[in-house]
Amino acid sequence: MPHRQLNIKIMKLKPLYYLLALTVTIPMACIVERPEQKFETYKRNTSLQEKIATVGLSESLLPSKDFESFKQHENDRSFHADIAFYETVMSYGPITDPNPVFLLANAYIATNQQNYGISYFESSLGYFHLQMTDEVKSNYLSAYALLRASYADNISLISRISWVKETFKVLEDAENLAPNNPLAHWASGIIYSQVPSLFDKKEKAFEELLWLIGHPELEPTPGFYREVYHYLAKLYTEKGDEESAKKYLALSGYVDYEPKMLFSGWFSTTKEKGLLFAPTPWVEEVISNRVFAVRGFGFSDLHFVVSENGKELMSIDAGTQPYSYKAGYEFLLEKYPGLPPLTKGFITHAHWDHIGGYTYLKSLNPDITLYGRENFHGTIDRVLKNHSYTQFRGAGFKDDWVSEYKPDVVVDSISAFSIGESHVELIPVTGGETEDALLVHFPSLELVFMGDALMPFYGEPWTEEGFVDKALDVMDTTLELNPKYILHGHIGITIMYKNTQQLKAYRNAYKWLVSETKKHVRNGYSAKDIIRLNLIPPGMQDHPEIFIGYLSPRDHIIARTADHMVGIWQEEVSGKDPEGLDVITSVERGRLLQQYLGLSGNQVANALRKMMDNGDNELALQMAVAAEGRYPMNLKIKKLKEEAADRLRSSVQFFDPFKFVTYTEIIEKEHHPISKK
């Protein structure tokens, strides 16, 4: 296992909780539908009284009584917003959705806080085992096993073998509880492939990973099998089968760089293609024979709607680049060759990843009609800003692809008409992201396309845009339409807000957060101060369907709201650490290390190692970048910089593409898509 030296006391474990959890029989089955999963809301233990307390200036949710020791403590435990959030909301009962369970486990591993994680999962298995179905318990045990395995090197040598064997028992129990649970097989395969040969688990590792390859329909999310290919490549290398090793390494996408952390999310970023939101090309038939989502071709998703009479095909947005739109459209036709010709396009907003392929769309047929907002010019002007980072749009991106865009039909008010006997409503709104947002409503299909109105960043992070207050109006407008299906411009947003249940719950949490953020900013809190408060609206614990949908944009909502309320300087609640007063860069940090502290390159490397061992990955990356300028020949510093960035990338791999790309570019690497078989 990767070597870890945590300079923190190992928390006392609770093995009796775990053993007790395994003896309980649960009659109720967990309902799972793949490849898209739908999860029942748990009925939380009513004996767990909701804990609310004043946090900053807000009445915010705290961990339940049995988990109150997991509260974040300043200067004691490194702060991570995702861990603080999940430890709070998941302390009120188990959830059927495995995503938060594994995101929390991943966050513990990425920040070297496995000791907290082990204790947290043992407590969860102990307190909530009576509420868990077999599949839910299997998920928790699989995540728990990953934490134990990644912590094994911190166990004393005299106890380590028994620790590892107990971890194997956890994996076996996870599989016995739910034999077809891909998460249990994934955890087993990843762990067995890394243990020393004396445990005789290599063949079992092959068996587990190949089982997953043989069940592609069980892949929980696109990209989850990336590490399956990666570790099969490692196993075949150990076996001396270089041909198979090369094949699976190519499938994993790790042809140029093997990250130092696990990656199973959907982002990829390369110099040539830029940022992709899906790790491999695929088509989802959202509504049989009528609505198709094409993913893996450019940053945004491509959506197509067949008209009621079956004679016309409508495109929602126009892709990221002409070549990616072309490839995506042709990929769709390969899968569904009988589709009618494209005749119409609806532009939900004029960001580069939604209009970049419009020239190809028009080349298919000069009579294709594009509908878009009348006030698109401001969005395009901001799009044309040149960035230091090049792996967002790709090396070949041309400004002409967006600068010459204009709609054929301008929409400045609610419009309704028929296309191929399909009733279409176009509803102009000021979206949360841009002022030129357009909702596309198909009443007979009970379907609304929202574009990026709820993009978690509420504007591109590098640009002064976003309309935080108006996003509430967009949600209300959409809810009034009462759609069965809600599709967004990117798969991640669609997963978070794909139905009215999720959207209603998010709308209420969003309104609360914006109000509380404004209250704090007016009283001298900076965005960073507010983020560290871990603001969670009371009652959130009863809405696991929006755990990710609230956490993903939370910090960005706070930052965007504060940005719109303050000047070039930002106050800070203590008054001692304001932003904007000084100009401290990596140059000054490098001088601190070498000139003022008098550290050698190896001493700096040791300090960076300690930072990461204690979970301070952001600090480690900042100091590593500074150190490189002063110790350019020290390879240890370079490797530690890569590890710090990989840990940060791993933490955001499911919900923050902009941070993912930025961290990737800081270490001058690429993260390739998973190759086609």
If you had to describe this structure to a student in words, what would you say it looks like?
- By secondary structure, this protein is α/β, with parallel strands linked by helices.
- It has three domains: 15-252, Tetratricopeptide repeat domain (Serine Threonine Protein Phosphatase 5, Tetratricopeptide repeat, Alpha Horseshoe), CATH 1.25.40; 278-489, Metallo-beta-lactamase, Chain A (4-Layer Sandwich); 586-666.
- It is built from 25 helices and 16 strands.
- The strands form four sheets. It has a seven-stranded mixed β-sheet with strand order 5-6-7-8-9-10-11, covered by helices on one side.
- Strand 3 (268-270) and strand 4 (274-276) form a beta hairpin.
- Helix 3 (98-110) runs antiparallel to helix 24.
- The two termini are 29 Å apart.
Gyration radius, rounded: 25 Å
Number of spatially distinct domains: 3
Structural class: alpha/beta
CATH architecture of the largest domain: Alpha Horseshoe
Oligomeric form of this entry?
Answer: single chain
**Mind summarizing the main beta sheet?**
7 strands, mixed
Mean pLDDT over the full residue set: 90
> Briefly, what CATH class of the largest domain?
Mainly Alpha
